Structures are given as C-alpha cells and as structure tokens.
Amino acid sequence: MLLDSHTKICIVGLGLLGGSYAAALSRQGYYVTGIARRQESVDYAAAHGMIARGSAFVDEKLLGEADLIVFSLYPHVFIEWIREHGSKLRPGTVITDVTGVKGCIVHEVQAMLPGGVEFIAAHPMAGRESSGIEYSDDRIFRGANYIVVPTEANSERAIEMCKALGETIGCKDISVLDAESHDRMIAFLSQLTHCIAVSLMCACDEPDLERYTGDSFRDLTRIANINDEMWSELFLANKDALLAEMDAYRACFDELRDCVANGDRERMREMMRLSTERRKRFNKKV
Amino acid sequence: MLLDSHTKICIVGLGLLGGSYAAALSRQGYYVTGIARRQESVDYAAAHGMIARGSAFVDEKLLGEADLIVFSLYPHVFIEWIREHGSKLRPGTVITDVTGVKGCIVHEVQAMLPGGVEFIAAHPMAGRESSGIEYSDDRIFRGANYIVVPTEANSERAIEMCKALGETIGCKDISVLDAESHDRMIAFLSQLTHCIAVSLMCACDEPDLERYTGDSFRDLTRIANINDEMWSELFLANKDALLAEMDAYRACFDELRDCVANGDRERMREMMRLSTERRKRFNKKV
User: What is the CATH number of domain B8-177?
Assistant: First the structure.
C-alpha cells in the first residue's frame, strides 16, 4: 500500500509545518486528523478545514485508525512522545516526521517502537520565519525539495509510501539520503545559513541601517528572524557536522578577506566566478 | 530649479541601472537622452521608449542641452570620463551618479569639473544579479532606499534636485549621508553581504546540493551570482571600511561557533533573540 483514497493520516503536532501538512493533505481529499498540545491549535485546524477531527490529548482512537502518522515536533519532544506513548501505536502503522536532524533521532526512535510499527524519516525543505499553525500554508511545499532518510531497518514499502507523501503535499524533487549524509547536507545548506544570518545581524548596531539597506541585506537576514528554542536545539543536535561546515565556510571567508587586504583582485575575481558558476544550479524550478 | 516638466535629463552609461533610470524618467514624462559605449545599447533604449534620443559617442549637443546628467558607470570609468570629457559640460549643469562607493570618487570628480558644473553624488539601493540594459526595469526602485551624499562643495539647490530625482524614479526613503558614513554603511549592508554569499558558495562542492536545499540557502546566495569585474573594483575602492566590517562580522560568527562547540545554548539563544529583534526593522515598506 502506498497512499490511496482510503489512507487515513494523523498529524501529531499542529504548528507551522504540521498545519501545512494537514492543509495540503486535506486539500488532496485525504481523511486527516490531528493531535496537538493546545486545544486552540486543534480548534484552529478544524475551523480551517485542515483536519476532520482532532484532539488535545493523545487519543488512542485517532492513533489506532491512522495508517500513517506524521510527527511534526521538536526533536526531543518527538523522542519523549515515542518513549511515553509509542506502545499505543497499532501494528501496521507507518510513522514519519519532519525533523531537521536525523542521526540523533532515527535509530533511537526505531529502536523504541513496538513490533509492526515502522518509522521512516523525512525532511521537507520548507518553512517560514514565523511559527504556529496560524502561519501554516500548504504553498510552502510548492517546488520544495523533500528528503527521505531511510535506515537499514526500513522496508521498501514504507520508503515508497514516504516518497508518495512528499509528492502528495506538493514537493517537487524527492530524494533519498542516509542519515549521516542528510545531516552533513543540512549543516551546510540550512544550519550554516542561519548561523551566518544571526551573526550578521548581531555584527552591527548602527542606527537607521534600514534606511540605507538594499535587498541583498534583507534577503541574507530574512532568517535572522529565528525561533531560538528550536534552532539552538537543532544546532546542538548536529554539532559535529555543523562545526565542520562552519570551519570550511570560514576558511573561504578568510581567503576572500585576505584578497581584499592584499589587493589580490585576480584571486578575488576567481572566487566570484566560481560562486557565480555554482549558483546557477540553485534557481528554484517551480 | 528642482525637477520640472522642462528639465532635460541625459543618462551616461546605459546598463542595468542607467537603463532603469531612463525607463523610470521617461515614464514620468521627462525628456531623456542617453549616451552609451555600444550602439546596440542606444538602439535598445530608443526602441523600448527609454530615451528620446541617444548617441554611442560623447555627443556635445546632448550634453549641452541637458540640465541634469546621471552617470551610471563603473567608478574608474566615471573618473576617466570626467578627466577626458569634463570640459565639455555646460556651466549650470548638475551631474549625479549611482556609484556604490563615494569617498574615492566624489572629491576627485568635484575637483576636476569646470566652474559652474556641480556634482552631487547619490546611491540608489537597487540592483539585480544580471547586468546589461536588457535587464533594466524601473520597478527595481519601488520601495528602495536612496542615499544622497553631499560634500561641503555642494549647494542646497543641487541636493534638493538630487532628492527630487530619487523620488521621481520611485524610491521610497531618501536620506543624506556624508561620504565616509555612506562607505561604512555600504561596506556592512552591501559589500559584506556579497563577500558572505561568495564565500558560502565557494565553501562546498558536494554534488546535487540543489536537490536538498531550502529557501534560506537560495536567498543567502542569490547575490553569489556576481559581476566579478564591478564588485572586485568596489571592494578594493572601499578596502579599509570593508575589512573593518568583515572583521566585526567574523568576531560574531566566531562567538556563535564557540557556543556550538561548547554547548553554550543560553548564549546562542541570546544572540538569536538579538538578531530576531534587530531584523524586525528591515522589512520592506512598499
């Protein structure tokens, strides 16, 4: 079984991403339910047609009827949830997630699950600077990348089901990486970029900067508006990979700085041509 | 005289910015002419209604009839142009520019001009990753900042005329800075951001990165697609200010790196909250 019109899907965690999953899947005609900590989030999701039913406690009936459960929680909350409630999951259920780091959770979660329940990890490369279900929007998945992160414990069936989920919510390019490769890629592409934006924003306290800025600074610092609770957890959960990417980047930055200091215009232009050439691959294909 | 329906404006240099000025001013009903090195640029501008007349040589008739001349040239080309052709400018003409650095040109240009010709420097904070008149578009000025950079040699009349020009092309916030302050601001807001994007793009050559990326990396590296000839000139023309900003930024980046290395989550979160707070000021007001 992949996804078909009879697949029942439960979303655990109705924040920005959970709400966006619920909205996308309901729009595609699936029967979607939701479990959240706050009753207001459940009510919001129901009122906006994102879920057919929901609960602000761990409702075993909702869990039991679901064929697929999507966990949209902070990493440590996800692990705690499985530790506390994993035994309530029905054999035959496939569970997946949206977590931004994988190595530190995927093996631990798989080891805790009862027999017959399979966890296939995934990471939709979509988000926003604002958190909470009120900001959820299924358009964030349009043209986005989606990474499935299987381990040796996963079945071909669950992997295919997870890929189908990524396509169903609207993602464009579905790829497969092992957990270690995923965490290295994400350290560079996502975590390092947030480190840069935060550092840049902290680096200057001149008044009135907003009156003099152009779009390049605005674009670079969009993600400097950051959820400090979530991102500090993600950074530390992927510490070694992130430090390696921070150091590799800083070596390039230092090289460019030396070019400026020494007036080495030729080497500076070489770096700029390399960056221009490489950047071409990254334009979004929607 | 500020700008009125009789003001004749000549654009020297019909590239991305020069073309966008010409388009914006023609759309507002001004009589606009253009001088460019390449006949094709002149033809393109005329064919697209950006200019009423143009020339691919330094046409003294076009210069003589202009009340206001906008130079949209690389810094060293602008200085060379004034050295070679400045004597052809008619007394009473006001000239302005779009150059991204000011300290290294404004005094030199003012000193070379014949009596009665006044240079008032300006910097529209607008641009694109692509160069050439084919990419020009007067919408780049919408909501953009515009900085007027007078020296003690400037008259109130020329300053007001230059401000009126910024408003006329569609810029939102017109401010005034001295050359040194401008160059310091721009080192941080514009040049440093380009250094970061280039360094980031140079730092990783993993294949298939584009399949795993999210929008944060795309936004941060948009300007990694960079005109190496122009930007290397701008970096070196503002070397001391740029080095100071690179070092200030790197100190913050290093501090964040140490937080990751040492697991100092509290300090990390403090930096994130500071960056979030500061970033709020930068949302574009259009």
Answer: 3.40.50.720
